[in-house]
Design brief:
Blueprint: H1 7-27, H2 33-47, H3 51-61, H4 64-75, H5 80-91, H6 97-110, H7 118-121, H8 124-140, H9 144-154, H10 160-173, H11 179-186, H12 191-200, H13 207-216, H14 222-241, E1 254-262, E2 267-275, E3 281-289, E4 294-304, H15 306-319, E5 326-328, H16 330-347, H17 353-363, H18 389-392, E6 397-399, E7 402-404, H19 406-410, E8 428-430, E9 439-441, H20 443-457
Antiparallel strand pairs: 1-2, 1-5, 2-3, 3-4, 6-7, 8-9
Bound molecules: zinc ion (2 copies).
């Protein structure tokens, strides 16, 4: 009996299996991007050694998302069979322009480091379009904070001429996942650049845009403020009309918070963590200077499991000698963070760029303004001027909750008890928080007061 050639049937079945795996992957909303992609790649290669060839076929014939995902996977697979097949295909006259562009994109990605000969293929624009589509496919599956950090690391520092083309492209696209980048770029622009970006934000009809615009609507410059307010009104209007189709991106509920305090330096360390339904933890760790600068430093991470997070907090506690981190409730942690932002804004200190990446995580948490009695922003007890530690350094006096600015300190040249000359370094301050004056006396008078007082207190 003649054996039926079933290789075509098998091939078809394998292709369907791989396509199903891709669809499955695309259905998950926001998986932990890099990791899942690696897992999918391993899974496919485990399914069949011919997976790369099937992916090439899927890349050329399937819908946009599946095709792009196949391209993304192929880029990370070494396969001689695929290379051979690609060469054949390039010579195939039946190949459509779109398919040719896809092939060229894959080639460009594979040869990323080397000099590519895209010019010869004469599909330059579609290749760039494809590359952008691929980038968007990756970005749409990352957490906002990951996108912000990626941008901060690779592009943010570039001169504006170099990145402006990209930024303009993002602004025209209006995709939600570009917002973390836009948030960062807004901070570096002059007022004209800011207004240009703000205008373009009307392409971004999302609840997150409203929060962002609200912040700029309170800007100190009138032109910026007016621009932000008018775009805000437009976005709000469209959002109201389309509220059924547009939802806020998922906000993860509060998981845990830790606060460390250095009362002698007026500093706080806050770790704020949220957790997704799938059990992944996102957190940021923020250093706050409650006396002057507000938010000083920030970092964070996403996709952590409970155990990993616990060990990160333990390590942090060990590493930073200044604080001992204690578990705190969400309200207190948010109070410190919100007040930190307020102080920095009020005093005109720019927020650290890393903090701009993590700020939405904090802002998305429900918060009712409250007061835990921490002094945010030291002012001189005598003249009322803000104390700016950057400028005045060690010449400032901080006495408990009371401070004296460098100028007022320098005027203390006489002992207020005996009237004798006074050297600031040897002076003693007598503080009465309810008065608006710091009494300063010399060493001799100080020791006399102490002697006099001693018997009374015994
Ligand atoms: Zn003063
Ligand atoms: Zn004296």
């Amino acid at each position: 009996m003649a054996k039926i050639d079933d290789s075509l049937v098998q091939r078809y079945a394998l292709r369907e299996k791989i396509l199903a795996a891709l669809c499955q992957h695309l259905k998950k909303t926001k998986p932990q991007a890099g990791d899942t992609l690696q897992r999918l790649k391993r899974h496919l290669l485990h399914t069949s050694s011919r997976a790369p060839e099937m992916l090439l076929d899927i890349m050329l014939t399937e819908q946009k998302s599946e095709s792009n995902l196949a391209l993304l996977l192929l880029e990370q697979m070494e396969s001689a069979a695929v290379k051979r097949r690609m060469q054949e295909l390039f010579r195939d006259p039946k190949l459509t322009e779109r398919q040719r562009a896809k092939l060229a994109t894959l080639k460009a990605l594979q040869e990323e480091q080397e000099e590519t000969s895209l010019g010869e293929i004469s599909v330059h624009n579609s290749v760039i379009g494809n590359l952008l589509e691929i980038t968007e496919l990756i970005w749409s599956r990352l957490e906002d904070e990951e996108i912000g950090l990626l941008w901060l690391e690779d592009y943010f520092h570039l001169p504006i001429e170099e990145k402006w083309t990209l930024v303009r492209f993002f602004l025209d696209r209006g995709e939600r996942f570009y917002l973390p980048i836009i948030r960062l770029e807004l901070a570096t622009q002059d007022s004209e650049g800011v207004r240009y970006i703000l205008e373009k934000l009307q392409n971004f009809v999302y609840p997150e845009t409203v929060i962002l615009l609200e912040q700029w609507a309170e800007h100190s410059e009138v032109a910026v403020r007016i621009c932000a307010q008018s775009v805000l009104a437009r976005v709000r209007k469209v959002l109201r009309k389309r509220r059924h189709e547009i939802s806020a991106s998922p906000t993860y509920p509060f998981y845990k918070a830790y606060v460390g305090e250095d009362a002698l330096a007026g500093q706080f360390g806050v770790v704020y963590a949220v957790r997704s339904d799938a059990g992944f933890i996102k957190f940021c760790s923020v250093l706050i200077d409650s006396w002057d600068r507000g938010i000083v430093d920030c970092w964070g991470d996403v996709g952590k499991k409970a155990k990993e997070f616990a060990s990160i907090v333990r390590a942090l506690d060990k590493e930073i000698e200044q604080f001992s981190y204690q578990k705190a409730d969400s309200r207190y942690a948010l109070y410190l963070l919100h007040e930190g932002v307020r102080l920095a804004t009020k005093r005109g200190y720019p927020l650290p760029n890393e903090f701009r990446v993590w700020r939405p995580l904090i802002e998305q948490q429900p918060y009712q303004p409250c007061n835990y009695g921490v002094t945010f922003g030291l002012a001189c007890l005598e003249c009322g001027n803000w104390i700016r530690f950057e400028q005045e350094k060690e010449s400032v006096w901080v006495l408990g909750q009371v401070a004296l600015c460098a100028t007022c300190v320098s005027q203390k040249s006489q002992c207020e008890h005996c009237g004798g000359p006074l050297v600031v370094a040897d002076a003693y301050a007598l503080v009465n928080p309810s008065s608006d004056h710091v009494e300063v006396i010399c060493k001799r008078c100080f020791s006399r007061t102490k002697r006099k007082e001693k018997p009374r207190s015994q």
